[in-house]
Amino acid sequence: MAEGRTIELRVKRQDGPGAPPYWQSFTIPWKPQHNVLSALMEVRTNPVTTSGERVPAPVWDASCLEEVCGSCAMLVNGQARMGCTALVDKLRQPIVLEPMTKFPVVRDLMVDRSRMFEALRRLSVWVPLDGTYDLGPGPRLSPELQEFRYALDRCITCGCCLEVCPQVHRDDPPGTGFVGAAAIGQALLMNLHPTGQLNKDDRLDALMGPGGVASCGNAQNCVEVCPKEIPLTHAIGEIGRQTTLKWLKDIFAR
Amino acid sequence: MLATGGPGMVFGKSTNSVVNTGSAAGAAYQQGAYYANGEFIQVHPTAIPGPDKLRLISESIRGEGGRVWVPRDGRPWYFLEEWYPTYGNLVPRDVATRAIFKVVFEMGLGIDGQPMVYLDVSHLDPAMLERKVGGVLEIYEKFVGDDPKKVPMKIFPGMHYSMGGPGLFAAGEVDYQFHGANRLGANSLLSCLYSGQIAGPAMVAYAQGHATAASDGVFEPEVKRQQQAYDRILGMDGPESAYVLAREMGEWMTANVTVVRDNKKLAETDQKLLELKDRWGRIGISDRGRWANHDVSFVKQLWNMLELARVITLGALRRDESRGAHYKPEFPNRDDARWLRTTRARWTSDGPQFSYEPVDVSLIPPRPRKYDATIGAEARG
Asked: Is B143 close to A87, i.e. CB distance below 8 A?
C-alpha cells in the first residue's frame, strides 16, 4: 500500500448461506468524509486484500445511504448500526465489519431481514382499504399525537433492535418467534390512529399470542441501539397496557 | 409497469439511492420503448457534497426561513435575496442552482476556496426547527458532524431528478408524464402517487383488453438470451473495472450534462461514452460465483446506463435553446417556435434516433419565465 494515512477494514465473509465464514482485510487510502459504505465502494473498484490477493469484492446491501431505507445494518466494530452513518473518522481501526447475527446470512455482510416483514404481517400493521369508495377527509389528530406517532413512524426496519435483543434468536421458529421491538412500535403506530384503531383488536390478539409482547424480557437494549431514536420501550409498555385491558375486557365479555 | 426510480447513478453521485441506476428504463428503451425528454435533468440547489453520494437538504428548509449566502468581503452576501427580491431564497431549483454556480465559478466566491455556499437556519427558533424539519437537519448533523441549528450548513447543487422516461406504463420518477423541462418542488409525489393510481388500473384494463396472452414463444427465447448475456458477463476477464468505468461516466456526465451545457463539451461527452462502451467489452469481474453476484448485475446495468447516458447527452446536444433545467449559454433563450416539443429517442444499433412531437398548450398559453424583481412581482400579482 502507498505511503500515508490509510483505512483498514476487516471484513467477515461468507460465500453463501451455510458456508463457513472467513476473514479478509482491505486497506485503502484515507480520504475525508468516508463512511463504512463509501470505504467498501472504494474496495470494490479494486478488490485486493491487504496481503495482495485479488478476491471477489465483498457483498453488502445498501440503497439510500441516508439512514432511511434500513438496508445497510451490520455490525461495525461489534455494534449493530447502519453502515452509511458509521463515519470512518469516528471509528477505531482496523474497522471490523460483520453481518448481523440474528438474521440468515445471504452473502458476506448481506442478511435476509424477511423475519421483520413477517412480524409486520403477523401484527396486521396496516389499515385495510378496499378502494371502492371515497372515504373523504381523514380524521383529525392533535399535534401532540401527530408528534408521538411521527417518532414511531421513523422506523426503517433495519433490524438493529432485533440484533441486540436477548429474546430474539437466529433459529426462532418462523411465525412464533418474538416479533421484536420494531414491529411492536409499528403496531402502536397503527393503534394510535383513529382509522387504524378500527383494527386494534386484531393487532392486540396477535400481540397476546406466541412471540407477542409477553416475550419481551425488558432488557431495554432496543431503545439504546435504535438509530432513529424511536421510543421503543415506551411503545412496548403502552402495548402491554393495551393488551392487559383487552385481556380484562375479554374476560368480562365472556 | 416500471416503478424503478430515476437514473441518478448515470451521474455517479446524485441525491438518488444507489439502486437508481436507470438500468430498467435503459433496457426498455433498447427493447423498443421511446425514451422521452431524456435531456431534462434537474439539479437541486441544496445538497451535501459527499464521497459516496449527494444528500438532499430539502426545500422545506428554505420554506421555513433558511437563507443562502456566501462570504464576500468578510460579510454574508445573500445573493438570492439581492438578485430575486420577490422570490428570494425560494426561486425555482434551476434558477437557484445557476445562481450558486455563478457565484462560485464566475465570481470565484465559495467557502474556504471550496465550491460550496452556506444554507443558514441558525437564526431561526431551534424548537420550531426541531419540530418542523428535525429529520432533514438530522441528516446533515449525522453526515457532517455540525449542528445546523448552530452552524450554517455547507451545501452545493447536486443531480436530483430526471424529467424524462420511457413511453410505457410507469409510475414515479421513471415516468415522463407531467414535468416537461422542469419539475416543481413536491411534484415527485404527483409522479409517485397519481401515476401509480392511474397506471396500475390502466395496465389491468390494457391486459384485459388483449384476448390472448403472450405465448411461450415470447418468453423462452428471451430467457435464453438473458442466460447467455449472464454467462458472457460471468466469463469477462479483461483489465477494466466496471466500477471505474461507472465513475468516469458519472464524472463526465456531471461536468458536462447537468447545470451548464456547451455543445462542444456535449459532443466530447458522447465520444467519451462511446469509448466507455468500447471499454465495457474489456471489463474483468472479480466474482465468478453464481450466488448473490453483485458484479455481474452491475456490469449488466452499466451497459444500460451507458445507452441512457447517450440519449441524455445527444438530446441535450440537439436542443439548441434554454428551457427549464436545460441551460445553454450559447442559446440563452427559450425558443418555442422550434423547441416547444417533446423529445423522443428510439434505439437503433447506430445510436439513438430522435424525433419530436408537439406539446399540447391549448389550455395554458406559454409565457416568459422570469423571476427578477419587476416581472416576478407582476407574475405574482
From this structure: yes
Cβ of residue A221 closer than 8 Å to a chain B Cβ: no
With cut-offs at 50, 70 and 90, classify the pLDDT of residue A246: very high
Residue B264 neighbours by CB distance under 10 Å: 10
Cell output for B177: 408524464
Please write the tens of the pLDDT for every residue from A116-135: 999 999 999 998 877 777 87
- Please report the residues numbered 15 through 54 in chain A whose beta carbons come closer than 8 angstroms to any beta carbon of chain B: 15-16, 31-35, 37-38, 41, 44-47, 54
Residue A1 has pLDDT above 80, yes or no: no
Q: Count of CB atoms within 10 A of residue B215's CB?
A: 8
B93 touches chain A (CB under 8 A): no
Query: In whole angstroms, what is the distance from residue B6 CA to residue B40 CA?
Result: 12
Q: What value, to the nearest 5°, has the Cα angle with vertex A43 and ends A38 and A44? A: 95
- Among the listed residues B58, B242, B72, B88, the one whose alpha carbon sits nearest the alpha carbon of residue B158: B58
CA distance to partner chain A, nearest, from residue B123 (Å): 24
Look at A56 and B53 and tell me if their CB atoms are within 8 Å: no
Residue of B14, B142, B285, B295 to mutate, testing the A interface (most A Cβ within 10 Å of its Cβ): B142
* Residue B71 pLDDT > 90: yes
Three-state SS for B68? Answer: strand
User: Using an 8 Å Cβ cutoff, are B3 and B240 in contact?
Assistant: no
| Three-class SS state of B131 | helix
In this prediction the pTM is 0.94
* CB atoms closer than 10 angstroms to residue A64: 21
Q: What 3-state class would DSSP assign to A80?
A: strand
Please give the positions of B annotated as active site. Answer: 93
Q: What is the pLDDT of residues A124-179, one digit of tens each?
A: 999 887 777 787 888 899 999 999 999 999 999 999 999 999 999 999 987 889 99
**Cβ–Cβ gap A67/B142 under 8 Å:** yes
Q: Kindly indicate the confidence band of residue B213, based on its pLDDT and cuts at 50, 70 and 90.
A: confident
**pLDDT tens column, A32-56:** 899 999 999 999 999 999 999 999 9
CA B332 to chain centre: 21
Average pLDDT, chain B: 93
Angle at A144 between CA A143 and CA A149, to 5 degrees: 95
Cell output for A51 = 496481503
